[in-house]
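Can anyone check this?
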Amino acid sequence: MGSHRYAVRDRIASLHPERDCEQIARLLVTVEFPWDVTRALELALYRTYCVPSIGGLLDATQEFAQRPQKRYDDTSLLLAEGLEQGLDSPQGREAVRRINQIHHRFDISNDDMRYVLSTFVAVPLRWLDRFGWRPLSDHERDATYNYYRRLGHMMGIRDLPPTWQQMVALSDAYEAAHFRPTVASAQVGTATRELFVGWMWFLPAPLVRIGVHALLDEPVLRVFGFRPAPRPVRALAAAALRARGRLVRLLPPRRRPHRVTESWTVRSYPHGYAVDALGPDGVPLPGATQPRPAQTS
C-alpha cells in the first residue's frame, strides 16, 4: 500500500468511479475501512430481518436457529469472493452463481432482493459518515454504489436506481412501508444477537446485549422486541466508535489488504472451503471445485 496515511484516498481519486468501481470498492473495504464495513454490513443484514417476508423466510429455513455461525460465515465468504477477487474473476462468477442458486430455491420478490442490496449501500455509507477515520468523497460513494449495482445486475435484480442517493432513499422508503413486528423476525433477530454474545464470551452476556441494542435504532428494536439501551449507554457507544476512528487516523497505513478469511468472527472453515458448498444445504453445484485453502496471515 502507499507510504502515507492518505495514499489510498489519493489513488482512488485517480480512478474512474464506474469503470474502476470494483477496484475502488476493494480498496475501501479491504484497506481503508475493513473493520468498519464489516460491522456496518452486519447491521445491514440485521435490518433486513425486520421485513416480515425476509424474516419469515430466514426463520423458516431454521439456519439461524440451528447454525447461526455457519449462516454468518457463508454470507460473508460469498460476498467477499466477488469483492476480493473481482466479480468477473472465476471465483467471483462462481460465488454469484452460488448466490443465485440459493436464492432461486425460494420465492423471493424482486422488491425484497433490491431492498437487501440497498442496505449494503445505505448502512455502510452512514456508518462511515459517523465513525469512519476519514470522510468518504462523492467519488467513493458513486463507486461503492456502482459496484453493488453491478452485483445486483449479475443477480438478476431489476429496476435498480441510477444513483446511490436514490438507492438510499429507496431503502428508507421500503423500511418505512414494510418494517413490522413478527414472531419470526424476532426469533431471527434474537438468534443473531446471541451469536454476537457468543463471540464476546469474555464479557458478561447482558452487557453485550445492551451494547448490541445501543447500535440499533428504534424501528429495529421495536420489530425484534428488544429493550432500548439506556441513553447514556447509547451515547457512550457512539463516543467510543468516534474515538476509535480518530485513533485509526493516527495509525500507519495498512500494509496489505485484509481478507474476510482472516476475520476472527469467521470460524466455520479453518481448513478452507468450497464456494459451491456454501449455503443453507451445502449441496454442491454441478462441476464442483476444489476447496479454497484457509487464509493464513
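Reply from J.R.: I decoded it. The chain has one domain: 7-255.
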